[in-house]
Every structure is written in structure tokens, then in C-alpha cells.
Amino acid sequence: MTIEERQNYDKMFETFSTDGWKLVQKRFLEMFQEANNLFTITDEKMFWQQRGSLGMLQFFIELEAVVTNERTQAESDEIEDEDSLNA
Fold first, then answer.
1. Per-residue pLDDT of the chain (87 residues; tens, 9 = 90+)
2. Of 57, 54, 25, 26, whose CA–CA distance to 38 is shortest?
3. For the chain, how big is the Rg over CA atoms in Å?
């Protein structure tokens, strides 16, 4: 992992640790729960709009976990690369 990539992950995790991010994440979850209701869908167009909205909300709700997994994988790959060079 490059220094720039490491700094970018650090910046993202700084954001995730703020009260503001926690509030935004809570609001995304509330919006998801409100929108995740089949009874409000009256036609196919509304279904696809709802599906897109739910997909984007789910993305932001899970963003911290996704970034954590990405960083963990990048660090693991880095260790494997070092091990293969030392073998």
C-alpha cells in the first residue's frame, strides 16, 4: 500500500469517527427503514425507483464496513507480497 493510499484510509476513518458521520449514518438507516416498505409501491416505475434508492442507502449504511474490509485486504496483500519477496 502506498503512503498516499494509507493517508486516504486514515482520512476516511477520521471521518467515520466523527459525531457528524454517526448522525448521517443514523439518518440513512432511518430513511432505509422508512423506504423499505412494499405496501407503498403502486407500480413498476415506483418499484425500480425504490430499489435504486434502497441500494444507495444500503451502500452508505455499509460504507464504513466496506472501507474497513478494503484496508484489511490491502494490508494482507502487502504482508503476502513482503513474505514472497523474503522467501
1. 889 999 999 999 999 999 999 999 999 999 999 989 888 889 999 999 999 999 999 999 999 999 999 999 998 888 877 777 776
2. 54
3. 19
Q: Which of 3, 2, 4, 6 is nearest to 67 (CA)?
A: 6
Grid cell at residue 6: 494509507
Q: How far apart are CA 53 and CA 46, in angstroms?
A: 10
**Looking at the whole model, is its pTM more than 0.85?**
no
Residues 6+ apart with CB under 8 A from 64: 16, 25
- Gap between the Cα atoms of 27 and 32, Å rounded: 9
**Residue carrying the nine cell digits 513474505:** 83
How far is Cα 39 from Cα 32, in angstroms, rounded to an integer? Answer: 15
